[in-house]
């Protein structure tokens, strides 16, 4: 049966970096509410646009996000879920939709999170993730087109971390209390973190 992996962690913990690799490794879908919302930032909903929430570092309303996840899960056999659930009501909703092969928490300290987020750069053509200090492309053409995400400024990063402590840490506690969470130290080279994650996924399968 295809793998159904949940990757939890603070903003900047490396969920996007690792999810992309997991999706390739196991031939499963990468379901990311963040990317889906960024692609529809100015979509009008009855709650306003996603942009109004995202640029303030707040959570987009559950109704909008649950609908995205519903559609993505319906199309996916296996998946790695990145950026969802982010509060307890989303966690409850998810448990009604599917079960999981593994739930992992990528553990990274706050100073490192801030350094990773404020230095992150994205390739708008491929979606590849880079970092000004740790990981820049060799190709000058790619380097020239890299952009910073609107919510990676120092001010919005602080708001996103506050939102994470208030809303998402209780989700992590919830999975921990269920005995369903495996914690992975995320402060190492991305290759090393990937190896730690795949060790867990394969032992849970
Ligand atoms: P989203 O896009 O989900 O952002 P996030 O959770 O804040 O996580 P990030 O994408 O910022 O970090 P990441 O852990 O993926 O780190 P990455 O791998 O890029 O959400 C954005 C917004 O959308 C939210 O604020 C909210 O408004 C809304 N939203 C999304 N989902 C929602 C939901 N379910 N409900 C309501 N609202 C929702 O890595 C970061 C950097 O570090 C990169 O530069 C990378 O190169 C570098 N790096 C990665 N790993 C390492 C390593 N091991 N060593 C050194 N550098 C590393």
Please describe what this structure looks like.
This protein has 205 residues and is α/β, with parallel strands linked by helices. It has a single domain, classed as P-loop containing nucleotide triphosphate hydrolases (Rossmann fold), CATH 3.40.50.300. The protein is built from nine helices and seven strands. The protein has a five-stranded parallel β-sheet, sandwiched between helices. The protein is globular. Residues 9, 11-17, 33-34, 37, 53-54, 57-60, 65, 83-84, 86, 90, 116-117, 119-120, 129-131, 134-135, 151, 160, 188-190, 193 line the site of BIS(adenosine)-5'-pentaphosphate (AP5).
Using brief descriptors, characterize the structure shown.
Rossmann fold; binds BIS(adenosine)-5'-pentaphosphate; 205 residues; single chain; 9 helices; 5-stranded parallel beta sheet; two-stranded antiparallel ribbon; 15% strand; alpha/beta
What's this entry about, in short?
This protein has 205 residues and is α/β, with parallel strands linked by helices. Helices cover 50% and strands 15% of the residues.
CATH topology heading:
Rossmann fold
Got a strand count? 7
Q: Give the CATH level 1 class.
A: Alpha Beta
What's the CATH H-level superfamily name?
Answer: P-loop containing nucleotide triphosphate hydrolases
Beta strand %? 15-25%
Order of helices and strands: EHEHHHEHEHEEHHEH
Per the principal axes of the C-alpha atoms, what is the gross shape? globular
| Oligomerization state | single chain
N- to C-terminal distance: 9 Å
How are the SSEs ordered, and which strands pair?
Blueprint: E1 4-9, H1 15-26, E2 29-32, H2 33-39, H3 50-54, H4 62-75, E3 79-82, H5 88-97, E4 102-107, H6 110-118, E5 120-122, E6 129-131, H7 140-145, H8 154-177, E7 181-185, H9 190-204
The protein binds BIS(adenosine)-5'-pentaphosphate.
The site of BIS(adenosine)-5'-pentaphosphate has 37 residues, from helix 1, helix 2, helix 3, helix 6 and strand 6.
């Amino acid at each position: 049966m295809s793998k159904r992996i949940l990757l939890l962690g603070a903003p900047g913990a490396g969920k996007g970096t690792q999810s992309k690799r997991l999706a390739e490794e196991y031939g499963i879908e990468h379901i990311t509410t963040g990317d889906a919302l960024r692609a529809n930032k100015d979509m009008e909903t009855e709650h306003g646009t996603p942009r109004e929430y995202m640029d303030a570092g707040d959570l987009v309303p559950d109704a909008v996000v649950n609908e995205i996840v519903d559609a993505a899960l319906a199309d996916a056999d296996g998946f790695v879920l990145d950026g969802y659930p982010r509060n307890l009501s989303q966690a409850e909703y998810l448990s009604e939709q599917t079960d999981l092969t593994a739930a992992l928490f990528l553990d990274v300290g706050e100073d490192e999170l801030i350094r990773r987020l404020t230095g992150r750069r994205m390739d708008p053509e491929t979606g590849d993730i880079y970092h000004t200090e740790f990981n820049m492309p060799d190709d000058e053409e790619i380097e020239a087109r890299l952009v910073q995400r609107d919510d990676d400024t120092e001010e919005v990063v602080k708001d996103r971390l506050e939102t994470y402590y208030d809303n998402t840490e209780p989700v992590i506690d919830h999975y921990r209390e269920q005995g369903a969470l495996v914690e992975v130290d995320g402060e190492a080279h991305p290759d090393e973190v990937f190896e730690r994650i795949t060790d867990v996924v394969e032992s849970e399968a």
